[in-house]
Amino acid sequence: MAVRPLTSFEAPIAKAVVDLGNLKSWEFAAFLESANGPLIEFITRMRADGADPSSDVTSRVAPVVVHHNHLSQESLSIADWHGLTVFVSETFAHCADGSIYWGKVNDVAGVQRVRVKIQSVEMDAASIVSDILLDQGVLNSADYGTFFRKEVINRAMKLAGFVEYEFAWGSDSVSPPHLHGGMPAPGPAGITGAQICSLIDAAAQKIATNL
């Protein structure tokens, strides 16, 4: 299954969050009433790691559609999934290399259980994918394990039935971003992710049984 195609209303908004993110090195987010609009809020908190909405969005009864940029090129975070359990119907994270991550929540309780133990789940995901990559002779397997841990978890939650999750790897040539801990990402995420996609799947299958 592929990422849901963007509507003609969403496409320029998705481009804007990426373009502005590249220009300012901040995360931007757009909150829409539906895939066809209207736009409720376009916001940045002038941070590289989040663009939380105002109360105008979080206090709404009807859930919203979110488009935001991930400067790190990483997949959806547990904070993204938490938003999907509270006030968001679906979320898109767009990256400079063209990669897109998309998600919806099916089982709120399941996602909340993962959220409570996210530190240990992330450590397990990083370790498992690193070991799989090392067995395949992949260089820098530990760095790759750390970078793709969220991708492993998201695929595992999909396997467990907690979420709907899809991704599309980009192939644009961009400089590798630096993660928030200072570590450089393993090249443009989409290019690397496409190369080791089946190995990420194998790691997700192992994680899914313990969620």
Feature tags:
about 210 residues, alpha+beta, six-stranded mixed β-sheet, 9 helices, 6 strands
Q: What does this protein look like?
A:
This protein has 211 residues and is α+β, with helices and mostly antiparallel strands. It has one domain (10-208). 44% of the residues lie in helices and 17% in strands. The protein has helices at 10-24, 55-58, 78-86, 108-116, 118-135, 141-147, 149-159, 189-195, 197-208; strands spanning 28-32, 39-44, 64-69, 88-94, 100-105, 163-168. The protein has a six-stranded mixed β-sheet with strand order 2-1-3-4-5-6. Strand 4 (88-94) and strand 5 (100-105) form a beta hairpin. 42% of the residues are buried. The model has no long low-confidence stretch (mean pLDDT 92).
Chain-wise SSE layout:
Layout: H1 10-24, E1 28-32, E2 39-44, H2 55-58, E3 64-69, H3 78-86, E4 88-94, E5 100-105, H4 108-116, H5 118-135, H6 141-147, H7 149-159, E6 163-168, H8 189-195, H9 197-208
Parallel strand pairs: 3-4
Antiparallel strand pairs: 1-2, 1-3, 4-5, 5-6
Short description:
This protein is 44% helix and 17% strand. By secondary structure, the chain is α+β, with helices and mostly antiparallel strands.
